[in-house]
Design a protein that fits this description.
It contains one helix and four strands, in the order αββββ. The protein is an alpha+beta fold. The strands form two sheets. The protein has a two-stranded antiparallel ribbon.
């Protein structure tokens, strides 16, 4: 069975994990009402997505 000969350094481990950070959620503004919502998601305020009404809202 393969076993490492030496302990991996902290710097080498940190370099490998440098891309694992959580990125902030990307927000876009709705073309219909201007509310900020996550990209590729139906607008929670007006129910529009890509220029058409997908979800009917009460108001």
């Amino acid at each position: 069975m393969a076993v490492p000969k030496r302990k991996q350094s902290h710097a080498r481990t940190a370099k490998r994990r440098s891309h694992n950070a959580i990125k902030p959620m990307q927000l876009v503004y709705c073309h219909q009402c201007g509310t900020a919502a996550p990209s590729h998601v139906v607008c929670p305020k007006c129910g529009h997505y890509q220029g058409r009404t997908v979800v009917e809202t009460a108001s």
